[in-house]
Design goal:
This protein folds into three domains: 131 residues, 3-Layer(aba) Sandwich (Rossmann fold); 121 residues, Serine Threonine Protein Phosphatase 5, Tetratricopeptide repeat, CATH 1.25.40.80; 170 residues, DNA Cyclobutane Dipyrimidine Photolyase, subunit A, domain 3 (Orthogonal Bundle). 48% of the residues lie in helices and 6% in strands. It has 19 helices and five strands. The chain has a five-stranded parallel sheet with strand order 3-2-1-4-5. The termini are far apart.
């Protein structure tokens, strides 16, 4: 009897999983599942401890779901991608696997590994089937008229929407229960991995695809309608907060898009739905960028000339930013949110990133790495794309002269100061006017256990603009 293997990576779900669905299509085969814990590789990629813990929690739920389908999940620990190749080949030999199924990953190291995997399995006469599963519209399905990858979001979005309307897309069901079950117990999944510590309370992030689907359902029942109006206010719980589930594949982009369309069909299309779909398209845009311009996976700026910028590498200033002690309340509250719960509101990611790169003129790669080391939803494409947007080094990035004023951002998007008070208790007693700029009153510092602004925003950003202008003239 043939035996299929589904190799799970960042696709930890049973519903709408292309590789799993196809692995189970033949009713006369046995199906096994495999997942690799790769501590050394995760450390090289700066994966956050809270994300590792969240992934392990999700794996335990996935194992239970797979058991209901008659598919045992084996979890193996191996050092890195190179050892994955040999360990996978050994596992396939031991278990008499005839075909391996997996969903593609788009990062450079992962793509190189998969090329070697297919070559290795071919030498063992094992078939290998790979699927584009991360996006609603797979990379290379939409290109510019001259056959290139899009580098500007607006035409990409137009092409993306046209493609989905013309060709549609399908959300696959979970596979049916296997009749030919294997007499094999699933692996015990560890709760912690050496080298990855997390102090984050994960009770807010219940594990598994069922929790993800419930969160999606709740969001699309009402909050999505007000998404455009409320999404930029961090004190409000007005975003879907599905990013951790998307990052590890506990839910698919297709499921999210379908849920938004279902809401539009039942209640009418509105600006909230339109803007949330636009955020899904942004996510896909950055995934496509990884394929079309793979040097961004190698610590390179998309606008390669900006690698010549004389970025500062001041460790003391960087540490103040990391710890939320810059003297700019919204920036500091954002960083303390990240350090406390392993997640940061999207508006605040832009504010914090732009402050580091434009006010402090510190290398965006330092901030990109710090975010990856602390985010529960850490994802190379989204994180790199967001940082390069803020630093004005990326594709379709913010113009270098358009720089957020952190105080004005605070007044606009946290007008009552509620978010700041939540994460900066030392400022909680200040009124809604003073809290955004506590040192505007020259006497106020006598009563504060809070640092003064570490830079003059106007002067710092003028200096940054000069650096970019000099780059243009060189």
């Amino acid at each position: 009897m043939n035996r299929h293997l589904i190799w799970f990576r960042n696709d930890l779900r049973t519903i709408d999983n292309s590789a799993l669905f196809m692995a189970c299509q033949d009713p006369d085969v046995q199906v096994m599942a495999l997942y690799f814990i790769t501590p050394q590789q995760w450390q090289q990629h700066h994966v956050a401890g809270c994300r590792v813990e969240f992934e392990l929690n999700t794996l335990r739920q996935l194992s239970l779901d797979l058991q209901q389908l008659g598919i045992p999940l084996t979890v193996l620990t191996t050092a890195n991608f190179d050892s994955q190749i040999t360990d996978l080949a050994t596992f396939c030999q031991q278990q008499q696997i005839t075909t391996v199924f997996y969903n593609k990953q788009y990062e450079v190291n992962e793509k190189q590994r998969d090329i070697k995997v297919e070559q290795c399995l071919q030498r063992q006469a094992i078939d290998c089937h790979a699927f584009d599963d991360q996006c609603v519209v797979a990379p290379r399905q939409i290109l510019t008229q001259d056959g290139r990858f899009y580098s500007v979001f607006t035409p990409f979005k137009k092409a993306w929407l046209n493609h989905t309307q013309l060709y549609g897309f399908k959300v696959l069901p979970a596979p049916t229960v296997k009749t030919h079950k294997l007499n094999l117990q699933p692996s015990n999944i560890p709760h912690h991995i050496a080298g990855f510590t997390s102090h984050i309370d994960l009770s807010y992030w219940p594990a598994g695809e069922h929790a993800a689907l419930q969160r999606l359902t709740n969001f699309c029942q009402s909050d999505i309608d007000n998404y455009k109006a409320l999404r930029d206010f961090p004190a409000l719980n007005s975003t879907s907060q599905l990013s951790p589930y998307l990052a590890i594949g506990a839910i698919s982009a297709r499921q999210c898009y379908q849920a938004a369309l279902n809401r539009a069909h039942s209640q009418g299309y509105n600006q909230g739905i339109e803007h949330w779909i636009s955020e899904l398209v942004w996510r896909e845009f950055y995934k496509h960028i990884l394929i079309g311009f793979d040097y961004v996976s190698k610590h390179k700026a998309f606008k390669q000339d900006t690698d010549a910028l004389p970025w500062r590498h001041d460790k003391d200033d960087f540490e103040r930013w990391c710890q939320g002690k810059t003297g700019f309340p919204l920036v500091d509250a954002a960083m303390r949110q990240l350090n406390t719960i392993g997640w940061m509101h999207n508006r605040l990611r832009m504010v914090a990133a732009m402050f580091l790169t434009k006010d402090l003129f510190i290398d965006w790669r330092w901030g990109e790495r710090y975010f990856m080391e602390h985010l529960i939803d850490g994802d190379l494409a989204a994180n790199n794309g967001g940082w390069q947007w803020s630093a004005s080094t990326g594709n379709d990035a913010a113009p270098y002269f358009r720089i957020f004023n952190p105080t004005r951002q605070s007044e606009k998007f946290d007008p009552e100061g509620d978010f700041i008070r939540q994460y900066l208790p030392e400022l909680a007693h200040l009124d809604k006017h003073t809290i955004h700029e506590p040192y505007a009153n020259n006497q106020q510092h006598l009563f504060l256990d809070y640092p003064p602004p570490m830079v003059n925003h106007r002067q710092a950003t003028q200096d940054t603009v000069k650096h970019f202008q000099q780059l243009k003239h060189n």
